[in-house]
Amino acid sequence: MGLGKAIELANKNIEVYHTKLTKLRDSYMHQVFEKIPNVRLNGHPEKRLPGNANMTFEGVEVGSLLLLLSANGIYASGGSACNSKSTTPSHVLTAIGCSREEAKSTLRATFGEDNTTEEVDYVVAKLQNFVERLRK
Q1: What is the pTM of this model?
Q2: Number of domains in the chain
Q3: H-run or E-run covering 47
Q4: Predicted confidence band at 46 (pLDDT cuts at 50, 70, 90)?
């Protein structure tokens, strides 16, 4: 297959793909804000990647949260994508105004084309439980 054909195939359903990811992300963000207190979205609410939600959960150490999520089949990351392999607070988050403490309480959820609304609901339910538990 030539490069031109590969690009054509990749772009063929891009709008459908972006629409689906945006709906999943927006559902996730809406549910998190509705069900979990003291959460802040990092970045613009709409001008962001369609499947990406980066949120700070006040009073939660994200490392502990990631362990609980992982044990339940949920894979997310702390901080920003460009800092995902580091334990130091993300320079991106500190540059947009997060304190070092807030950056250490930040979770990045990313959704893909294979994710479903049921999975988003599952993630939010687990997240609500774990955040409540970790804040106690």
Answers
A1: 0.85
A2: 1
A3: none
A4: confident
- Cα separation, 129 vs 124, in Å, equals 9
Q: Is residue 98 flagged as an active site residue?
A: no
* DSSP designation for 82: G
- The residue range of the domain holding 106 is 3-135
CB atoms within 10 A of CB 16: 10
Place of tokens 């460009």: 82
Q: For residue 113, what are its two tokens? A: 């084309």
From the list 10, 67, 81, 82, the catalytic residue is 82
- Grade residue 82 by pLDDT with cuts at 50, 70 and 90: low
Do 105 and 60 contact (CB within 8 A), yes or no? yes
Please report, for the domain that includes residue 70, its CATH number.
Answer: 3.90.1150.10
39 has a pLDDT exceeding 80: yes
Report the chain's C-alpha Rg in angstroms. Answer: 16
C-alpha–C-alpha distance, residues 48 and 52, integer Å? 7
